[in-house]
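User: My collaborator sent over this chain with a note saying "see what the structure looks like." That's all I know about it. Can you take a look?
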Amino acid sequence: MREQVFRIAFSEREGEYHPMENFKAFLKRKDIEISVRRYLIDALGAMAQGLFCSLLIGTIINTIGTQFHVPFLTQPVATVSGIDYTVGGLASAMSGPAMAVAIGYALHCPPLVLFSMITVGFASNALGGAGGPLAVLFIAIIAAEVGKAVSKETKIDILVTPLVTIGVGIALSAWWAPAIGKAAMRMGALIMWATELQPFLMGILVSVLVGIALTLPISSAAICAALGLVGLAGGAAVAGCSAQMVGFAVMSFAENGWGGLVSQGIGTSMLQMGNIVRNPRIWIAPILTSAITGPIATCIFRLQMNGAPVSSGMGTCGFVGQIGVYTGWVNDVASGAKAAITGFDWAGLLLVSIILPAVLCPLINLGLRKIGWVRPGDMKLK
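Assistant: Without extra context I'll predict from the sequence alone. Here is the result:
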């Protein structure tokens, strides 16, 4: 009996000397999960949605207004600090706050932290310059988690939580954002320079890697936006993403019908991720297709994506990649960098992003079926 009492007392004393266990319990209570999935899948994917709902939509609105001569969309609707903004311009200007709030939402931030992320996103994106999206990703994650940690821990939560969240966000923005932004742009510039120098090899590399990222549960759009990926490299990225989406949509048509064709072709090839885990060989055909269409885009058609960088990683999702290419053409014509949009341009865009993936991917997959690597039903969406 005495031994049992001694063991109980010893266990209670032990509990007092386990700060790590207490810290883990605190993180669990605050829903702070330090993991690759939370930060590089959930947060990155949400950031891409924030970019889509601000910068990308703003670009599309501006393009529609310009091409269809809609006065309401081309004329300034607001002037802030001497700068005129169109409807699309206002949407694009909110990209920093939109990204940060989206990240906060993915990290399950309570209201006061989530609303404070607006300021954090604006500061980190502005100070990050052209590489702002990557700065927003890092800084918003830290500010959100610190804000969650102090949330509802005091009786004056309405003051403490916003002050801490915004304070941490702005301090890190001033300290880190310029360096992160410059590093991202240098990496993006290096990729684009290498693609110009070696369009065949880099066409394959960029197309395959960005295409794989699109199908994986991470965000290829956010990666392209963070690196500012445009030009020939952007064109290769569009080719790779389109190969994955159109390829999976067409080669799985027998299993998934028209619904699967639309959901994968203009939705996302990520729907096949569960099937890829069960049989990774179904991924061979789209990857090989992207390895073919990438260098065709860079070497034959010299396809450039000079719209918003986020479009490079969207493929045929809502035809955003193609809209980005077209937007770049329009801007290049307006600036004098391009004489006109030619039939060759259109042929290249359609072949690389739609026709070739729709033809090559099923053909390659047919060979895989004949050798037994891919079986009927392997790509059936649940």
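A starting point for your reply to your collaborator: The chain has two domains: 36-183, 198-370.
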